[in-house]
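Purpose: get a first structural picture of the assembly so the mutagenesis plan has something to point at.
Setup: two entries, given in the order below. No constraints added.
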Amino acid sequence: MHKIYEYPKSRAAFEHACQVIPSGIYGHQGPAEGCYIPIEAFPLYSQKAQGSYLWDLDGNRFIDYMCAYGPNVLGYNDPDVDAAAAKQRAISDCTTLPNPIMIDFADLLVDTVACADWAFFAKNGNDATSGAVMCARAHTHRKKIVFFKGYYHGVSPWTQKIDYSGIIPEDVVNNIYVDWNDYDQLAQAFEDNKDEIAAVIAQPYMHGNFADNIFPAQDFWAKVRKLCDDTGTVLIVDDVRAGFRMDLAGSDHYFGFKADLICFCKALANGYNVSAICGQKHMMNAMSSLAFTGSYWMSAVPFAAGIACIEKMKRLNCPQLLIDQGTKLKDGLIETARKYEYDLHVTGIPSLFYLRIADDPTLMLHQEWIAECVKRGIFFTNHHNHFINASLSDEDIKETIEIADEAFSVIKDRHS
Amino acid sequence: MHKIYEYPKSRAAFEHACQVIPSGIYGHQGPAEGCYIPIEAFPLYSQKAQGSYLWDLDGNRFIDYMCAYGPNVLGYNDPDVDAAAAKQRAISDCTTLPNPIMIDFADLLVDTVACADWAFFAKNGNDATSGAVMCARAHTHRKKIVFFKGYYHGVSPWTQKIDYSGIIPEDVVNNIYVDWNDYDQLAQAFEDNKDEIAAVIAQPYMHGNFADNIFPAQDFWAKVRKLCDDTGTVLIVDDVRAGFRMDLAGSDHYFGFKADLICFCKALANGYNVSAICGQKHMMNAMSSLAFTGSYWMSAVPFAAGIACIEKMKRLNCPQLLIDQGTKLKDGLIETARKYEYDLHVTGIPSLFYLRIADDPTLMLHQEWIAECVKRGIFFTNHHNHFINASLSDEDIKETIEIADEAFSVIKDRHS
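Result (structure tokens, whole complex):
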């Protein structure tokens, strides 16, 4: 039996935080988001991280399958990335004029990403998706944007829901929402909004929260690409979450099509702060026409980290490595669940797997199982996809499956 | 006579960049923005930076008065800030759960900034201004935002101009623009939009580009504050550019009033990538209600850098130091200009001075003078305010004034 973790220091820190930080912890890393149910099962503040491990403030060690919600792709504190970043830091980071390492990074992305003739750098995934939408509007002189229901494209008002706090109708009035994989509905939306649609924005497959992840239907992307071509619409792939965990050439390349614009962040530099828009040649003038920048957007250190990260991902053949490790884990978890007569659904690409115990549609049983895993040192969350990083060992996977087994056993006993 | 700089490597890098990066260099750091006229006088890519100096790609050394457009407040590669950041990096940076150093940073800002009962962290100055506007809308359930003409609050569509590329009417339909320092006009705007104004957003004084900077008129801020109080409107101070160069307690404190929300970036962490919204207690629930976050927003290294930066700024009494150095420079430049019978206007707080030779309303003469300074190693720009950093020495100021003298002499000869 594994030790059951407790979190007194984490709780105390959170209580203090609530006095001076709105929500104590905001966004997806905080308890308000719904990833951490029941909250008692989860730590909230961390002490340190290394490789595939995270230690909470009480010193409990976790095998971390959230990977900072994506940025940790090689392992925390990767020595090659950190060395490249430290070398650049000794020279310069955020200065009045950019360092040419920015050009080196753009060259590398153009070499690596199939649809990329150019690269534009920013700081948030949200900067990339917002810049891509502005670029599409500049290019087409149209207003409307098509989204697939279940999407997440960041936090700017244009991408939020009308009933969210601080959002006004004008923010979302040009949004059109269609069902994922429903080509007929998409074609009808184009028919109903002829010559008004600037862009379709989509993740490479549907990896929303609170639902099984769904791959594109046969020929779906080919048909969407053709519809965009026929109507002069910009096809934007939001690869912020899946990028470099499916295909180093871009997740559009994995699915056999070519985006006009593709957005990267997270896995781009192993946690160093950079995001990117890459695009085809015909989009470059529109991108150049935007007034779009920020104080830190040309800082040199994240470019050095990004170069080292992509080069190492290439050496490791990273997406395949992550998919292979994810497949071992997935197979082991499904088999273990079956021992206890649970039907565990594991969806999405295995490097970005989504978990759901399908036996209970209320998801309560699933939450109970996740809680028992977390309290024993496996950092899963309930309703968000998970992430594999390259430092995750076979030993880690074995330990994960052992703990998952114990957690299944606990909930089986509880409900027998 | 100083050597005249040439920039062949810088030019070659820029030409290469134009193949793979939209505009080669975008935003305020690039030639498209209009800060660098004539472009031939300016380098475009840098090699390294240290203290108050920047070296371009051709190895030319500049005394850098742009300071990365603000982030360099202590001097490039400040050893205290860099040591604190490196120490945190060895432990953790971007991880699944935040490190409690986030709480320490929030505590420090609450202790330091007069209006701050809490702090919320993001990555861009633009994240801070956008979050503040969303927070104001959430708090008031109103839509409209008042801007002062000449403002700059970042690059999100809501803060751009209707005729900018990629911007649609809905982005700016709730914006109201009034003249800086015209209280009657502001009061009329409130009268015309009764119960519809969510926020007034303003820099602490008018430090726009292409125009002399203008301090608030007598009692202006007191009257604006009262108008906001009387109407339940949120007063947002955008201290992204001026923050910590006027008053460590916030530029609102410098002018004797208290913002509801204040936005920081740039000088907050000496170039490490972090921005912040601070606010009064009554705004905390609205801020908590937003769906607003990003992949890197809780990264620990910039918090460590921010703490070290603010603590060092306190030890140095930084705003006063920067104002004192800026005043020496300003006095020296004005006196030198007078020797050549030029009327050099130096406006804004001396730590953030704006330059204009007032003898030629076309600004051509001013641009010629700036060009002659730059080509001799003083990194000024034409139509943007400048920045002082704490490592700028009396020797640097002396050298600056000598070069400015030579530059005045050159243009005087040219136009005699």
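Chain B has a mean pLDDT of 97.
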